[in-house]
Amino acid sequence: MGSSPLSTRPPLRHRARLLLFTITLVLFVFFYSSTLTFLSSVFSRSDSYERNELVRRSEILSKCAYTRAKPGPPPHFHARIQSDRYAENTKPVLVRNATIWTAANDGHEVLAGDLLMHRGLIKAIGNVPLSMIQQLELGSVNLEIIDAHGAWVTPGIVDLHSHIGVGSAPELDGADDTNSYKAPILPWLRSIDGLNTHDASYELAMAGGVTSAQILPGSADNIGGQAFIMKLRPTAERSPSSMLLEPPYTLNGSHFDHSLTPRWRHMKHACGENPSSAYGITRLDSGWNFRAAYDQARKLRDVQDAFCAKAESDSWDDLTGKTFPEDLQWESLVDVLRGRVKLAVHCYEAVDLDGIVRLTNEFEFPVASFHHAGETYLVPELLKQTWGGTPAIALFASNFRKKREAFRGSEFAPRVLAEHGIDVVMKSDHPVVNSRYLLHEAAQAHYYGLDPALALLSVTYTPATAMGMGHRIGMLKPGYDADVVIWSSHPLSLAATPTQVYIDGIPQLSLPGRYVAKGPNTPPRTPNFDSEKVATVAHEGIPPLEPRSVRGALFVNVSGLYMRGEGSTEVMRVSEQAGSVGVEDGRVVCVGQCSNFAEGDVDIIDLEDGTITPGLTSFGAPLGLVEIRLEPSTNDGRVHNPLDGDLPAVLGDTIMRAQDGLMFGGQNLLLACRGGVTTAITAPSGTFLQGVSTAFSPGAAHARVENASVVDDVALHVAVSMSSKVGVSTQVAALRNMLFGKGGDEVLKGVRKGKTALVVNVESADIMATLLRLKDEYEAYSGRELRMTFAGATEAHLLAHEIAKAGVSVIVTQSKPYPSTWEQRRILAGPPITRESLVTALLKAGVNVAIGVVDEHNVRHTRFEVGWSLLTSNGSIDRTTALALATTNLEKALGVQREMPQDLVAYRGGDVFEFEAKVVGVISETLGRTDLFV
């Protein structure tokens, strides 16, 4: 028999052991594998934690080191071969035969030679190596060569104080981003967040040679926010960010490479009247606002420093789970305390300046620049007590007295500050001063005594340094940005105009030099104002301005004599070389041969080849009605607008007259006299029905002086504007009703009869066209001439021939045009943008044109406003025509009926329309005397 199958199987116990072994082996392998995985995970997490912790610690230490790093250009900055703002395909430019003011050597270096721009940088200056030019030619680069013919070349103009882009032109509610009114302390706001790339001002500013600007928030707040530096040229990106110059790395948060050299940040503070009026607070409140804000920032800084002290002492256990202390609202103010912010502080008066100086010493932070700073020239030693060093002082040239805190400002402030070794900057505060004419601010400062090198520095290298950009702009030097301006004449001469402007090496004027006449190539020999400067400081900004009056005077070394013609309808040149001119009781009694007159008891005044010309007539400013514009108690006030509601019954049909509100002896009136204005024609201030203007002598002591009033009632003034509370059609309907109605004031009756001029303040060409139609309607209805004049008339060039045909005169009150409002947007910009200016275009069309001035502080410079039109007219205006613009043409436009007095003004050292001349006497037939200012 065979064996049973069961007999060959392993015993049951053996199989159990085998199964147990297998299970044990599997469990061991599983446990071992899990243990390895677990241990690997544990060690991996530990390694990852350590790595992350090392990274965290490194980032913290980097941030801590960054808090102590000083801003400025990175190492080897000037070794760069291409600008960070270089635009592809920009052709290199070689400017040859130039007179180059470089700004080097404290503004005294002038080179005769060439300048090479390439890749957004200045590559060579003076003597450009031939090898450098050949290298460009070998590289098949299209080199553009410009022959300057000896013209002056300077760095691009730098504006330290501008609101361009945030206070856009034309002014529209949708682009009004200059100020926030949410709170007086707002360091976290940023001007870049409101920068409008469509502002019409960019083109105009570049046409004045401005290439860079600091865009500040406004001055409504004590701390208005952060500012940014920008280049004004358009970019391919068309974005605000692409216009920025060296934006701080903090622009988009705190996550950046902290090993980089910090870039300067910028911020605006303001004290005085603006925050007080915006928030209904006082200077006491402002002082506390500043201290509370800086205390908050100091606490955050101290927490950061304590955190960093632990990190840098390796006390990491104390920092477990903690991050670097940050606060987005206050971090910028912490950077002020760390000395990493170029702080611009708006302060006028000594009390405000003193408060900020004390604040800097309490919290230990520097100030880069004080702005407006009207009284700084009175307290130079106070400025030197500012913590961290004396700030630069950014000033207007002559824009003073519009508010109380600006009342003591002086045209001699730049000179006085410079004599105390303090850096001076001239700024625009655009659009307060159109930044297109920023160089003119420097030229005025030079006229009143600032050294010419310092005057040019004040709009180039000094502001560049004050904003922390002196390593790349404001100077012509190899390695600097290719921001370059070629000028029509010496930059400090009146009406100096760019013929080409380069920003980053890119030309900005489409028709370079085509519309610009060449002017003097030497700086003006400015007058001596030593005594006036001393008196201004001694009297703390309000010096005695009254003249010394005499019966007789002999003016010698007179180069030219101009007088009014018969009937006072024109200006004529009486003598090209008068030699001597004798005057008595305000009248010329001899010309040339005055030996007998000289033997009498008369004052002898040497004019040093100066001229005697008719005294100028002013119009446009509320001269005599306004002393401090923003202080109502110093003004006549605004007249009642009948379109706002019923007139008080007590007024009846009477129209308000400027003569009834005149105030004599004010600073603006007396300065106007010293500027050559002998007759002021002033209308009441108001909207729509403004009232009746009056002509008077600004040199009279009071209204009861004989002949103080030249013409009691001159013209009837109305305004028709899109800015009124009521519509244009309503305003025109009201004017039509006045003209076609019956009764009313005697002056209105004179307008209806064609005896009195109707002067309409109007800017829009469309409204002017409507008014011309209204004139036709009235004349067809009445059979009488309606003597109409447009004042302001920014857009009058658009219908110049129609205006001439209608026999309407135009008083241009903004001879340097700016599209401030929508109804002024279609300006005729004038050279270098357009060939014609508004004045020349109207003259060529046959219009009777005059020039007025709207700001009372600027009436004293009426001759410079007229001179600007003369010197930029490309020869289409001669000197007699220029004089007529502010004398006989103006009087004709206003309908002055009488023959005007033969008042004359004596200028020492040059022509009336030059920066070399100074008024030394007024020969007043009106007042029967000669007033001397020497």
Question: Taking Cα atoms only, what radius of gyration do you get, to the nearest Å?
Answer: 36 Å
Distance between the termini: 159 Å
Please count the helical segments. Answer: 24
Overall mean pLDDT: 93
Number of DSSP strand runs? 35
Q: Mind describing the biggest β-sheet? A: 9 strands, mixed
Q: Report the uncertain regions.
A: 1-9
**Shape field:** elongated
Instruction: Report helical residue fraction.
Output: 25-40%
Strand fraction equals 15-25%
* Secondary structure category: alpha/beta
Report what the structure shows.
By secondary structure, the protein is α/β, with parallel strands linked by helices. The protein has 24 helices and 35 strands. The strands form 5 sheets. Strands 17, 18, 19, 20, 21, 22, 33, 34 and 35 form a 9-stranded mixed beta sheet that branches. Strands 1, 2, 3, 4, 5, 14, 15 and 16 form an 8-stranded mixed beta sheet that branches. The protein has an 8-stranded mixed beta sheet with strand order 6-7-8-9-10-11-12-13. Helix 1 packs across helix 6 (283-312), helix 6 (283-312) crosses helix 7 and helix 22 (862-871) crosses helix 23. The longest helix has 57 residues, at 12-68. The protein starts with 11 loop residues before the first helix and ends with a strand.
